[in-house]
Amino acid sequence: MQKRVVPFVFCFGVLAFQMNAASIPITFTPLSGLTGGSPAETAVYRADLSTTGLASILSIAIADNSFGLGGASGQFSGFDLDAVKLSTTLCTTASCAASLPGMAVFNFSAAGTVFAPGAQRAPADPKLFGTDATGNKVDNAVATLGLFDGNSTTAIQGAFGFVSLGDGGSLAFNLTSAVSPSSLYLYIGEVGDNGEVAAGRVTVSDVPATGAPEPASFLLIGSALVLARIFAPATRQTLRRFRQGGTK
Residue 238 and residue 100: Cα distance in Å, rounded? Predict the structure, then answer.
């Protein structure tokens, strides 16, 4: 399989939760192949957290940075997160990451997450996919964020296994216990492998999250490592856009 080349640009964002004074960029590497449910079109990315320089990690946050470009509309707007895992195992393929048990330090309930829903692209739905009845919390019975099992479709009877953040939305995870970043890898999955023009700023911190990254600004307060993945024009031409009732 030909290796996918994805350019990365680092930028800084306002964080509504405390972080220490260090600021160290995180590099994500795209893994080969795809995984997920049916259709299985989740792209998986790996970050080596040993390079952060932090003594411990207590929270991880992901924020959409797509600005309405790429992907679908309505409840499927923004970055579509299939799963997030921490592991000391180095994987080079999406299938390897999907098979990892992962560290049992995530609480995917409302008590362990901080969700800030982003905007929907017209036509809007009552709430974003993978959220509860209020639209302000993740419904992990639908999102199943501990498993790379997302069905890459916008068909309501088929979509399952992920949460859509909305344009400018964000989701933070407070770990149940501090973890050492030494020899530790973070794996995240993007349903559809359509880029959504980067769909993400990813931050790690040694303190719990009490809010989520502010989507509109690019000023650093405290410390976090913010990654925006920007696709080159040639790559952008190959991105798949969601089709209502079809695959992502």
Answer: 29
Question: What does the domain layout of the chain look like in residue ranges?
Answer: 9-236
pLDDT 10s per residue in the chain (248 long)?
333 333 333 333 333 334 433 435 577 899 999 999 999 999 999 999 999 989 999 999 888 887 777 778 999 999 999 999 999 999 999 999 999 999 999 999 999 999 999 999 999 999 999 999 999 999 999 999 999 999 999 998 899 999 999 999 999 999 999 999 999 999 999 999 876 534 457 889 999 988 655 443 332 223 333 333 333 333 333 334 443 455 56
Evaluate whether 31 touches 44 at the Cβ level (below 8 Å): yes
